Amino acid sequence: MFFMVSDRNKNPKGLGPDHAPLSFWTATAGPLNKINSWKEVSRAVFKNQLLRQAEKFPDIQDPAEHEEQKHVTFFVHGYNTSWAEAADRYTALCEKLFTGNESLGVCAFFTWPSDDMTLGYYPDRIDARKSGPDLADVLSDLYDYLQNQEVVAVEQPQKKCKAKTSIIAHSMGNFVLQKAMQLVWTRKNRPLLLSLANQLLMVAADVDNDLFKGGENVDGSDGDAIANLSYRITALYSGRDAVLGMSAGLKHFGKRRLGRSGLDRTYPVPDNVWDIDCSNLFAPGQKNIHSGYFYEDRTMELMRHLLRGVDRNVLRAAGFVPTPLSGVEKAAVAEAGLAPASVNP
């Protein structure tokens, strides 16, 4: 089953480029880029159907098997993306990670009114900022549910959650998420002990690369909010990303892009934040790196292991993060039972 939340306007061809009140949609089959495949439902029906999907997940009791636990994942697309293109990206993600025997669980996507204009960087950034509160409403509901389930699980352990929650944000969708997470954190009195997202993947993030410069300090910044609402944050980046090169050129101010340059290491970063240079995971002649993360088998396999919660040192040792292997890392990969990836240098 497929799930969509949108703050785009409705039109006969689907969902448009203008801002509108939140709407909720479900589908049982594709093509997902055709609006007739979707059924608009109420917020309550959407929530109940999503929960019913999660209730079907296996009940993983052994903490040592936590990596096998299924996910409820939210995907937020990037800029210069029509609704149909966003639906295509969502379809590709579902086909790679959320279908078949190896499915990680269920994925829903949040589609915001990107203008689908090649030169629409500034209009899209405005729309992204406007969409932050809408995504915050959705994530606030999720936070409230998780908080309530923690209380229930203490008294009735058999009712504990069967799913982890994760978020994948692409490109300027990370800016939407950045603003949404700040609002959620503020509304919930800046909690420090409950994670909204078990795993957050910031893919080709079109945000400042010093977003997390507060380090472990509680400074109330957007990066502080994201770090405190997430168990682990992974930024996937590449200096070969020409789209983010254009983004930096259009700005003429601020910092380099996280998705092009990686974390600004002149500042401390929170311990639960790290980055991966994915440049070598793409073929030498590949041009569309910015969107290629969702179509390259090696980056999708990396995302799979990241969502499962595989330790970062084990991922390095297995070659999914292309760095030299130390003796300790070689032992770790053998213990984990992962086959070394072909990209390991």
Structural class: alpha/beta
Query: Mean pLDDT across all residues, rounded?
Result: 86
Poorly predicted runs are none
CATH T-level fold name: Rossmann fold
- Structural domains: how many: 1
What shape does the CA trace take? globular
Q: For the record, give the distance between the C-alpha atoms at the N and C termini, rounded to a whole number.
A: 40 Å
Strand content: 15-25%
* Radius of gyration, CA atoms, in whole angstroms: 19 Å
Tally of extended strands?
A: 9
What can you see in these coordinates?
With 345 residues, the protein is of the alpha/beta class. The chain has a single domain (2-309), classed as Rossmann fold (3-Layer(aba) Sandwich), CATH 3.40.50. The protein contains 11 helices and 9 strands. A 9-stranded mixed β-sheet has the order 3-2-1-5-4-6-7-8-9, with helices on both faces. Helix 3 packs across helix 4 and helix 4 packs across helix 5 (222-229). The longest helix has 35 residues, at 121-155. The radius of gyration is 19 Å and the shape is globular. The model has no long low-confidence stretch (mean pLDDT 86).
Summarize the structure.
This protein has 345 residues and is of the alpha/beta class. 39% of the residues lie in helices and 20% in strands.
